[in-house]
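Lab meeting, action items carried over

1. Structure of the two-component assembly. Owner: GW. Status: complete.
Input record:
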Amino acid sequence: MENRLQRLFVEKQQGLLSVYFTAGFPNLNDTVPIILELERNGVEMIEVGMPFSDPLADGPTIQHSSELALRNGMTIPKLFEQLKGIREQTQIPLVLMGYLNPVMQYGVERFCQKCQEIGIDGIILPDLPLAEYVEEYKEIFEANCLSKVFLVTPQTPEQRIREIDSHSNAFVYMVSSASTTGGTNNKGVENTEYFQRVKAMGLKNPAIIGFGIHNNETFAQACNHASGAIIGSAFIKALEKEGSLTENIQSFIQSIRNQP
Amino acid sequence: MSYNVNEKGFYGKFGGAYIPEMLFPNVEELRQNYLQIMQEPEFQEELQGLLRDYVGRPTPLYFAKRLSEKYNTKIYLKREDLNHTGAHKINNTVGQVLLAKRLGKTRIIAETGAGQHGVATATVCALMGLECIVYMGAIDIERQAPNVARMKMLGAKVVAATSGSKTLKDATNEAIRDWISNPLDTYYIIGSVVGPHPYPDMVARFQAIISEEIKWQLQEKEGRQNPDYVVACVGGGSNAAGAFYHYLDVPEVKLVAVEAAGLGIDSGESAATSVLGKIGVIHGSRTLLMQTEDGQVTEPYSISAGLDYPGVGPLHAHLYDSKRAIFESVTDDEALQAVLELTRLEGIIPALESAHALAAIHRIGAKPDDIVVLNLSGRGDKDLTTYLNRFDLNGK
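Predicted assembly:
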């Protein structure tokens, strides 16, 4: 059975905007309002971050939002409670993103079952090794209609990109440059050699570019090389601005979609 | 049962390489090359030469007569405190920096808790003419000021980790983030038997020289290679891994690992991972980890910056789980008392970390004829401010 993520890529292969935010930030109960507002503003896909105390792959912005979310009381059970019934309100593809340890403590199989119950479509766990996923968890993910999304970077060898592609069934997450999220190395989306090299490989999955995408210019650049782009840190910063959630989200998404 | 790492990087159910894809090429490069490089005759020749002439090895195995009398057993101190830079840490940094050079890396990063690993890394970088960046928790920068000064003197850049508990765990996070952002020219010298495979095994192998020397030194002094007990403190566990290494498969040698209880196991201010932790993933390794029910890493506490870590190396998790090693824990106060005791009985001022091991001697049940080898992992110079604040030295 196809999930919403897979259906999305059948319907649309270009200019997809995916937005990441940390659940429980800025306020504990903002999760569902943010999802609904993003959908109203025409975002195609949403990544909901499960905060972790030690987010190794994240830059200062998401470290900060994670810390605040945890202080607000966000946990995996709390997030599931908030998302219960979300499918009566929206059909937008939802991906949960977080680190392995909290999921391990919840129990991977129980986590996957709960995700299916709620209507989650994909999972990103950057520190779950590909080999362990394939050996121990792939069946569980697939049985629960969950697409596991893997990252590739400019340094990932071709053979490994192919291996990742073969175990993926939604999209490949292309990390734009060697960097943590938010891109302190921010070269934007200039690494065209890498994007073209991956494009030329003719992967079975579409690619989405993330890390360092922060305005309409970088979003447009990313869309030239892939099916779409993911924005995280820049959106988190927008949520912190003065003004209502609705206003902040609306003006941010408009600024991204407008032609530069 | 085997206590060595298997081909997948696991010790029993602990270990592995739980890293984001960004780190995969570097960790994989290391995994494929470390054993081969370490076995090259030229590498060994260079390493052994440096350990002998630069680090000052072998370190003495010293019979501590007055300490032995006090505890009514035979206590030998393995004097890792006499190494260049004042602790065992340099055994590993000398090895890893040679490996980094063979891999063509030009920029070295490291994390440090007490600052001993930072100093040992800055030292070998100065020796090799390599750029060096050391991440250190903001709290540790304050409580280990002399080591910060030494690193700067040696030309290293010391970067404060200001997230989380601002100690070793957070310094490690920042070092990993640096490596993610600088994948091509940078080599990460991890200071303990933690991190993704192959680090725990590689660091243990570089520290194994400690037990290699104990064996022949004890043979010379006592006519036997095997003591009854080997005692060492454990934060991440590198000095213990080195002191245990050649005895892992010798069941008659009892291995004692001593953790920091901080203000007490049940005080909420502790770093005794074996008691307080459960299986989880930290810094790329599946191991015992202090964490909440929801899998968030707990902020540990110990007076000793080098033991102030919420995890433990996967080898030690396995030694605990399989009951191969006995785990003890020692409070701040007990460790401080042991500092003063060794200082006054033997004229040796130990590091706070090593004092934890000393404070556990009376608990292990050693008999008068038993031989106890205690790994004195470091000297106390870096802790003098703490000692002066905590001891009333007037009139004593």
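2. GW to write a short summary for the group page. Key points so far: Strands of chain A lie at 16-22, 45-49, 94-97, 122-124, 147-148, 151-152, 172-175, 207-210, 228-231. The longest strand of chain A covers residues 16-22.
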